[in-house]
Amino acid sequence: MTFISLQSMSYSIGVRCLFDQVSLTLSKDHKMGVMGRNGSGKTTLLRLIQKDLSPDSGRIVMSKGLRLGVMTQHDTVHPDETVMDWVVRTTHAPTWDISKLAGQLGLTEDQLNHSYHLLSGGYRMRAKCVALMALSPDFILLDEPTNFLDLPTLIAFSKVLKSYEGGMLVVSHDRGFLNDLCTHTLEVANHTLTLYPGTVDAYLRHKQEKQAIIESTNRNIERKQAHLERFISRFRAKASKATQAQSKLKQLAKLSLIEEESDAPMVKIRFPSTVVAKGTALRMESLGIGYADRPIAGPLNWQIDRGERVGIVGGNGQGKTTFLNTLAGIIPPLSGQVIWTHGAKLGIFTQHVINQIGGEDSILDYLMAQVDDGVTLQQIMDTAGGFLFSGDDMLKPLSVLSGGEKARVVLATLLLLSPTVLLLDEPTNHLDFETVEWLADGLKSYPGTVLVISHDPSFIKAVTTQLCEVDRGVIRPFPGDLDDYIASITQKLMPLHQVPHTQKVATSTHKKDAGSRSNQRRQLTKEIATLEKKIDQYSTKKATLLRFFMTDPLGYSDQKAEELEQVTNTLQELESDWDEATTRLLELDTPAN
């Protein structure tokens, strides 16, 4: 059933065209992740669909009686309105339903009765999740829903969304979140919309494969053109070859290169090549954090070596930002002391810095005011260019910048300061995931010390070398990596009656051991061989279908796209079965301790 239909829709902001004659059909089966650069029009698309904005031409048609659920970044809340009052007013859902949903997302009855304005950003997002699901919508629009969510809430929210049976359109910079949740991908770029029946990762692979095929085809065309041109040049003056030369000329006229999509400029984050000696970067002695009337956590005795990259994890409201701000000297320690190595130069990215820059100063004015006197104008321009600010862009007033552009300005400032230590509180909010990946790559090669808070599991996993947990009044180095931390959270969230996965595996393995190992080995070897044959067959089918998209000007056909989705899903299932079978075979061949 078609829920939403965009019909030849166009929309511009001033002289900048965002959408030019785009058409799109959204149904109940579409769980769609929206990808695109900052400023490409992702949020604008959602605002057009929810009628906050009107198209310049074309139209958007909704099915009759459609219940549209929207999670926005800003909500209207009455003064002193409690969370429960706000949810009831905006959804008209019964309070017991609201309480049940709140419990699934980690909101207590006490928090439901708090003033909405007193909630932290993370808990406000939980309240928005509760309100959204309480509406029981047919189709939902999510604009950066993972911003400010801690990992426990992110896991719970993902579980709720996965069980949701309607359609959805999700804008998020968190690539892992989109891959886990969405079955379709919608790219917003170059004034148009491109729909792909697969995950973001599958779509990006498809684009790479498509580009490789185009490049190979163009090379063949260029070789044929050169051959025809040589023949024509050599024989067109000869009467005996004139007919053939004329024929070759017609062939040449029919040959044209396939137009390649121009790559949008990429952010290039080059951290300064700071010389960092070995030794201790930071020492904490009996450190307690909090405020005179509200101790939060501690004491902590710990030291961090230079060059380490520490991820600070924990639930919302536990004190992660207070801890980082204490290390940064923004908040004084409640007890004990923070001792940085001599000569340490701190670069600080605070969670709300995006809201603190604005006004009519230009990007260039701001950068020049923030950096040290020894930094040259050329260095400023080069660094800003790496963050996609150049030419007239540098004269833009800060007031007209998007959240993502402001975040890039602040990151550019940090690089120009050449710090030996980076303290980063949610640096990935507002950034598109390509910029997030560039930032992660830059931090991995940065020789200084990094302490970072982020809700993005993929970013934390890529960047950090160790974790520090802030939880229920305790600050401690976490004894494991992010996978271990997520496993511990998942275990806590698991209902008591649910049998843990490890127990199921152990029981299954015990049953296998009762049979003949040699018979099992033969069966598994045969099963693996069969699976490998099928994987080869479906890989060939997928490659053939991908080539079909090369001949379609839009790269999309309903019938072929559905077939590609089926082949891709079957291939994923076969690969999963192959992984499981090979793991079982390895277990059989591994002696028991």
Poorly predicted residue ranges: 495-515
CATH topology (fold) name of the largest domain: Rossmann fold
Average pLDDT works out at 81
Beta fraction: 15-25%
Total number of beta strands: 18
- For this structure, the quaternary state is single chain
Termini gap: 56 Å
Helix/strand class: alpha/beta
Which sequence of strands runs across the widest sheet?
5-6-7-3-8-9
CATH architecture label of the largest domain: 3-Layer(aba) Sandwich
Helix count?
20
Highest CATH level, the class of the largest domain: Alpha Beta
Q: Please describe the biggest sheet, giving its number of strands, its sense, and whether it closes into a barrel.
A: 6 strands, mixed
Shape: globular
Spatial extent as radius of gyration: 28 Å
Helix content: 40-55%
- What is the CATH H-level superfamily of the largest domain? P-loop containing nucleotide triphosphate hydrolases
Total individual domains: 3
Question: Which key terms come to mind for this protein?
Answer:
Rossmann fold, six-stranded mixed sheet, single chain, 3 domains, 593 residues, 20 helices, alpha/beta
Describe what this molecule looks like in 3D.
The protein is α/β, with parallel strands linked by helices and 593 residues long. It has 3 domains: 133 residues, P-loop containing nucleotide triphosphate hydrolases (Rossmann fold), CATH 3.40.50.300; 214 residues, 3-Layer(aba) Sandwich (Rossmann fold); 89 residues, no CATH class. Helix content is 46%, strand content 20%. The protein contains 20 helices and 18 strands. Strands 5-6-7-3-8-9 form a 6-stranded mixed β-sheet, sandwiched between helices. Strands 14-15-16-12-17-18 form a 6-stranded mixed β-sheet, sandwiched between helices. A 3-stranded antiparallel β-sheet has the order 2-1-4, with no helix packed on it. Helix 6 crosses helix 17, helix 8 packs antiparallel against helix 9 and helix 19 runs antiparallel to helix 20. About 4% of the residues have low confidence.
